[in-house]
Amino acid sequence: MGFVVAVFPWHSYFDNILPNGTIGVTVVIDDQCGAVFTYEINGANSHFLGRHDLHENGYSSNMYSIDFATFSQYGGEHAPVNGIS
After folding, report:
1. d(CA 49, CA 43)
2. Which region among 13-17, 29-33, 54-58 has the lowest average model confidence (pLDDT)?
3. Residue 12: what are its φ and ψ, rounded to 5°?
4. Measuring CA to CA, which residue among 66, 61, 53 is closest to residue 26?
5. DSSP 37-82
6. Model confidence at 7, in pLDDT bands (50, 70, 90)?
7. pTM for the whole thing?
């Protein structure tokens, strides 16, 4: 059994995804392993705000939540190795 690990900067996913003039979109990332951190996106630029969920509670009703890269999530299944289960 083995694992593949990749390290990438989150800001690379958030830079240049919104049009100029878009102000104050907050993104909270929870890796489900204990780490939570927050970015703010203003137009084409993102800014790391810090560790923890730092969104303004008054906007919680506008929250939209998605799972990231569900295709790559390990579900506990055992894959055969060289045809041997």
Report:
1. 16
2. 29-33
3. -65, -25
4. 53
5. EEEEEETTEEEEEEES----GGGGGG-----S-GGG---SPPPPBT
6. confident
7. 0.71
